[in-house]
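Fold these two proteins, one after the other.
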Amino acid sequence: MANGFFIECPLQGNCSPIQQVTLSGERGFQNAMATIIGNNGFVSKRVLYQEGRAKLQQLSENNAYLAAHGVCMIEARVTEDAFVMPYITGNPANEHFRELLQCDREAFLRELDAFWNIILHSSEHAAPDEINWEQFEPGWEKRRKDDPNRDKWKNIAYGSEMEREELGVILKRGYLDLVSLNCFYVDGSFVFYDQELFLENVPAKAVMVRTIEFIYKFNDQLDRILPRGEVFARYGMIGYMALYQKFISHFLNVLREDDGLFDYFKEGRREYGKVMENRRRMNYSEEEYPMIFKDIFHQTKGRRLYLFGSGKYAGQFREKYGARYPVSGYLDNDERRWGTEIEGIPVLAPAALKEMNPAEYKVIICIKNYMPVVNQLHRAGIPNYSVYDPKASYREAENAEREHQSAQTENKKYNIGYVAGVFDLFHIGHLNLLRRAKEQCNYLIVGVVTDEGVIRHKKSSPKIPYEERIAIVRACRYVDEAVEIPLDQGDTDEAYRRYRFDAQFSGSDYADDPKWMAKRDFLQRHGADLVFFPYTEGVSTTQLKEVVDGKSDEKDSSLEGWGRV
């Protein structure tokens, strides 16, 4: 959470009586602080600007509030410009949980239950009639009039007992930093600190999700002992996980002022995906990692291909790579599926592999929580397997296909082009954009936003479902490849890293938009381009939807980051 450090290197004499200073200076004048660990047995949080003095009083009030609700807090005092606490030498709670899980699974769950009980009692519980349910979900202010989820949470809050239990307790004050990262384990008790901020009317499960994520973060070994999915299920968090993640994102945005520094962070912060990849690498040898996660088509030539899993990921794999890499069968741990077929391809028990020669087949795991299957294959002595990630780009397979198709066409200004959009109620404006894009590139990739993506980002519901929209786009003569835009990885930089296109094409109504100018700068720094085509006047999806719904005409609003098409 810090964005800088002070390192003291004295040329002569003694150092100052300070061990360490961490800075959180990017959070604005009211929230910027330096956390100072001194040699005098105290830690002080000192404001960097005069505007931040009110923050010190807020810290003190939060401490008192939580202590009054039975949460053990490090005692602190407020001075003129600092919040001062005694230095604690206890075991960080994160490490306590990790050590327990590695040696005693049941003890780990007992301690986690105790932690959950602290969160549940950290604030009064809000009654359903005390909450404005239309403004409950973060991002509600961007909602459109036809948002199908407008009454979703109200219906759940007043719905069945099962629905209410799945949503869980709503805390009047949700301290989303009341997590294992900001906590010590001292003499059998959890002792908390650094509670700078709370949000009103927060699901208690959102706070617990953060703790579970911190415990498991960057550690595949813990997933092998007890998959985090099982822990989430233990506390009934699976059904509304997307909601809890929205509260977490909103909290971090408010705490760090992410909106104001979005462009800077995109360029300056480490890529979370790269950090995760590096952490994952540490669990495998230098030879194993690329064969399992990167070059997933290694050792497939001349071998039968089996997909472990028969759900969504397997379907996406076949849709994308099935023509080049035919699938011989599905493997599934669900006994009910054994002996069935999916589009003529049999579903088998994993034990069927024991009757085959390992040199004659390759297994590709198509399951989100892949670690249990990796362990299963290890135990069975099956060496030739890889893990499929729908969000990853496997250049060996994809580039070969694109280069082959590009070689069959005339040489144009750009080799690979990219267009992204919703393509709801496909009209002449869509067609014009795709035609103009294809005129300038040999191979055109078109990203299509999912239904969930439209609802989340436009707060509106598409008239045509995603499966039909992408089928329409795929059938267009100007489109070489139609792909799904991942829900949380739909911006230009992420698309570029996935497809390495030479140009992205968009409508000219974005030509003067500062955010799109930032996207152009990013692409040009990487040797690509952003090309705007004249916007087709007189027609838009919003206008067509209003005609269908019998509403008045108004200008279409765009989907930021994906473009107007």
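Now the second one:
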Amino acid sequence: MVELKEIRKRAWQSLKGHYWIFVAACLLAAILGTEYANTLHLLRIQKRVEERGGDMEPALGVGGAYGEISVLNDLINGNLDGAMDSVRHRIDMYQGRDTHIGKVELGHSRGVLASVVNQIASGTLLLRILTLLDTILSSKKLSVILLAFLGFSLSVLFWLFISNVYRVAYCRVFLEGRLYAKIPFSRFVFLYRIKKHVKASLSMAVYMLLNYLWLFTIVMFPVKRYAYLLAPYLVAENPDLSPLEAVRLSQQMMRGHKWEAFRMELSLLPWTLLSIVTGGMVGILFSNPYREAAFAEYYACIRKEYLEKQEEGTQRLNDLYLFEAAAPGVLHSAYADIAEISEGFREMPQPRPGVWGFLEKYFGIVLSYDEREQQYRDRAMLEQQTAEYREALAGRTYPTRLFPIAESHKRRKTEEGEFLRHYSIPSLILLFFAGCAVGWIWEVALHMLQTGEFANRGVLHGPWLPIYGGGAVLALVVLYYYRKQVFKEFLLIVLLCGFVEYFTSWLLEILHDGQKWWNYSGYYLNLNGRICAEGLLVFGIAGTAFIYVLAPMLDDLFERIRPKILWPLCIALLLVFFADVVYSSFVPNTGKGVTSAAVVTVQEETETEGEGTI
């Protein structure tokens, strides 16, 4: 028999060691609809409604419950006029009001993101697709049928190849968390790397289908539910199991343990109730990952007991090192090349002493490029390429080379290590001006596309926007410590750029009597009109591309410039730039297309546009 108290204790230890990745795994499962989707329904921000002309306005701009579903139902039932009226009504509501959550404005009247949200939530996108199909097929009825079929097909494909595959992957994450100190994010896509995602998806489809069919019997459903309980964990251990084989093996292993599994779920029920009472918060932050950690421990216990009995199918439980640590000799044999390379890491150049050593160690800044820097880059690149393997060699992560199914490796650009470098002072200066110039060209081109008019964008008179160059260089040096972690770097770039843009907007308004150089009022998810989700997303993507692709390429070019030319060029650019800064502090660049002295309100915009149209 399994000791449930001991299982919960070990699950708690596992959760403490991998808290954030476990929380992220369960949250993503809820978003994908794999597990715990009810948690998000509980957490969903409640709609604030107010009476206005007899209509109830949804605060978040998500019409009724699901605006797009309502429109699709009208289309399928042949009520085209009703669908169009519903869409017009929703567009009028969304564009007519910008609601708030605290100080964050859920703008619906300006920007690309607002347009996308409006089109999806109002059902406009469905009508546009229907119009396109009608133009091609010349039949509204056939177009509606095809639209419904396409929607159903996309849902099935998503369920099969995303949701079902993830169900197995996140079980694998919790199983590895029992034994290993670190879980690489690459483990979430391990099924694709071993090319077993289709087989695993079919196994989960059969698992869910059988559960669904037994549901109709009512009485037998609880029995069969616990009989099939281990199927996802079995596939996570051995993705080569056939769909029916996974279910049958689960039934064999769960003989005599169904009541035990029920008692275990019952012991976790208080946490589920607490999650409901707290609107899903406890579920997201604790009970969901704790439950998954507990069932991963439960599977390990049932598996151990089954192997001891030497019953049928034990040969299919073949991932030994998912449940016990490999001996040092086994690891060194599997990772002999990595062990040999690791010996050379002792030759990695140490930071210089003094101030330059501090700048090099924490910000990646050196005075100039030299032979020592080239040695550092070579070693850093080699270290990055072998980082995951070295963690396995040290016993901190699961040894993928000992996995029964070999992985298919593709070398990714972010693993080539070209971005792992220090930047010299002249290179940073030129990168700053490159960012300023690119930002200026982007803003000018965007304004010309929108209005057809040229405007010298920015507070300065020269062809540069320092907020872009400054943000790029700040991301490069301030976030130097996180450069090996691409996803974390992206999130931090978003936060850093948001802070820089908000602070710059606030400072300019103070220094120039409230004059605005940009205003995001009406944009979806904006804060006081100074920053918005759309802009920050662009900054995050552009900043990530800059750090990992563009900056290394430009740095290579700058290093080819002779120092006798490089330093005078940097000094000349700085002198001209600071002269512009001083002049613009007295005579700032203002005017049409540059500043927004008067902000048009959302109500004024909708009044001039008249009735909402599709």
